[in-house]
Amino acid sequence: MSEVRRTVAVMSTALWNDLAPAPRPAGWGAATHVAAGLWRIADPRGIVVGHIRAVAAEGGYRYAAERFHAASGHFRRLGEFWSSNEAFECLRYSR
Questions:
Q1: Do residues 55 and 62 touch, judged by C-beta distance below 8 A?
Q2: I want to staple 50 with a disulfide (CB 3.0 to 4.6 A). Which of 13, 59, 67, 69 is the partner?
Q3: Is-above-0.85 flag for pTM?
Q4: CB-hemisphere CA count at 13 Å for 83?
Q5: If we measure between CA atoms, which residue out of 4, 30, 12 comes closest to residue 92?
Q6: What are phi and psi of 10, to 5 degrees?
Q7: 60-73 pLDDT tens trace
């Protein structure tokens, strides 16, 4: 098996065997699983508003709300929360 094919196989396995519970939109927007522990969040119109990243912590997972900052070319962490619903609300209201 070539190196490229092996890498793709590992990546796709990581996407579907994610241990962190997926965030639930709670009636607003949509979450798309894009990597292990990372979801892209879009508003009801389909416009991407940021990411939610699962961060392993003592006692479970914390959810970090992140938004892309065009001037720096990096994602900025808006906060870490114990529930994915709180991370969703952070992205929703920090626009």
A1: yes
A2: 67
A3: no
A4: 6
A5: 30
A6: -65, -45
A7: 889 999 998 888 98
73 conformational bin, left if phi > 0, alpha if psi -120 to 50, beta if neither: left
Q: Are 41 and 50 in contact (CB under 8 A)?
A: yes
Q: Report pLDDT digits (tens) over 3-38.
A: 444 333 334 444 445 667 777 776 778 888 898 889
What distance in Å separates the CA atoms of residue 32 and residue 60, rounded to the nearest whole number?
21
Amino acid letter at 89?
A: E
Give residue 83's identity as a one-letter amino acid code: S
